[in-house]
Amino acid sequence: MKRFMRVLALGLVASLLLSSAALAADTIKIGLQAPLTGKYASEGLDMKNLVEILAAKVNADGGVKGKKIEIIAEDDAFDPKTAALAAQRLVTSGVVAVIGTYGSSITEAAQDIYDEEDVIQIATGSTMVRLTEKGLENFFRTCPRDDSQGAAAAQVLKDRGYKRIAILHDNSSYAKGLADETRKRLDDNSVVFFDALNPGEQDYNTILTKIKGFNPDVIFFTGYFNEAGLLLRQKKEMKWDVAMMGGDATNNLDLVKIAGNDAAKGFFFVSPPGVNDLTSPFAKEVLDTYKAKYNSLPASIWSVFAGDAFLAIVEALRQTDSTDPEVLSEYLRNKMDNYPGLTGSIAFDNKGDRAGKFYRVSEVNADGEFVMLP
Amino acid sequence: MEEFFQQLTNGLAVGGIYALIALGYTMVYGVLKLINFAHGDLFTIGAFLGLTLLTSLGLTDSIGPVAGLLVLAVMVVILVGVVGFLLERIAYRPLRSSPRLSAVVSALGASIFFQNAIMLIWGARPLVYPHGLLPNVTVNVFGAELPLIRILMFVISVLLMCGLYYLTHKTRIGTAIRAAAIDQGAAKLMGIDVNRVISLVFMIGPALGGAAGVMVGLYYGQINFTMGWLYGLKAFTAAILGGIGNIPGAMLGGLLLGVVESLGAAYISIAWKDAISFLVLILILIVRPTGLLGERVADKV
User: Fold this and answer.
1) What interface predicted TM-score (ipTM) does this complex get?
2) Which residues cross the membrane (chain B) (predicted)?
3) pLDDT surpasses 60 at A15
4) What is the distance in angstroms between the Cα of A128 and the nearest Cα belonging to chain B?
């Protein structure tokens, strides 16, 4: 009897091992590192939900070369120490690539672990500049980085042909950073004014009067919607109809409320698209599925970047017919060309940053609505 | 020259608001030697009450814009006066005989209370006065285009200040206020009801702050629950600049602070605007430690 039991046990173990081996051969594992608990759990859960919807869609269509995709989600709790552990667990579970994560410092804690173990990582909400400046072969991101808004803003100013640009920030590290990055990319002669206002005040007539003395053809204000609204209102009151542009911190309809439709009309800003702005048929289809399943859209654009990371990985797997990280990395970096993702076309530059046009320009129309320009 | 004049008027308009609020600080300090840190928040309450009354009563539609706004302002002034009266009764009177520091702590507490109460009642998002209440007419003065509203605002501020000066220096009750400011004990012996005087001061000061709040709301449009802090700080500075406890000093200090800020921003640096005005404050206090007009304060403290 004892012996029979032993044989039975051995047989069970063997069959288990066999079946899992057979299963492993049928699936490709993709890791997801996300804050599933803690302060940003809502973002992490949105990421997971969206990636799972996309994975189910890929699997329903026959998977990748006949193999099913399996998502292995690990929680980093928006904490660097937990993130390092999560990365270790994902690496040992045999994933070919990892999607995530949300916070920059969290990504940084996990980055080297993936790199050492030759696992592709595509970060989704980590905008800190230096993450892609380390020369890591296997690191990518689908979100823009902190200085790319400046580049986008400078491009818009150039495209619109402004020759005399006044740049105004509010001394917050965000607004000053954007102002500096923009100025760096503009011709020195075209920036006629560069200074900061004091946020939280009510009266900006002094500043407007001063800027008017420099006779600019556009004012680029990099601060928040509150001050932008007041500037527009007081500019209108001065009967000065110079163009005004904002950064993504002005993407708030309270701006129009404060300025009034008349004064806000024609104001434009550069900003990443919001979840509601994703209107491509593919994005619509995916988001509709999401809404049907979870009764709401993802709360922010950051979780949608996780979907793009997933799509990029699957496309790389399909095109290269390989799970070798070196081949995949080479494909993502050099060959992926404007693959249609959820937030726009996906491509990566040499550093692994998302390439291509991502920031969009929106303008306030006569009814005080934000209209995204094509 | 034209730009200089424009900037000067910009400064005077802001300075007029500072001065109105500074009067509240200075009156309370003059009588009680207390810095009423909640004063900036009473100004905010004025702005929010004004908006609520404006939208709920629709006075500007029923009795015309000018009369409507006037009635509205009077209502807000009275209401904020009542809030000031209650503030003194609840937060300051029980501490009248305690060390002065206790009253200062109570004032800070009242400020925090008001700020959070405003946030809970009206919400944390900025609110906006209805557009198009005031006509956007500009007047050409010496080559500079000035919005009529700015001029009116300045004129109203000066009129209110003159009214206050008249009240404190030419009337019986004003004499009582000044007597209580100089020596409460002696004033009591002369038959002055000091408690009533203090209550009155706590109604007049906040009422002026409330009037400033309505004007700021009407003119700038946007109001938020933290705005009293910055205005309060600036007005407090203005009161010290002019000599705290001195009513003409608060007016002078407010206007001067506004003009220094505006010209400093215009001709030196916008980002250093506040640093410049505080530098001027320090320089003036080094030369005249009691402020510009605050001669009698030295022996009071």
Assistant:
1) 0.85
2) 12-35, 42-60, 66-87, 107-128, 148-168, 197-220
3) no
4) 27
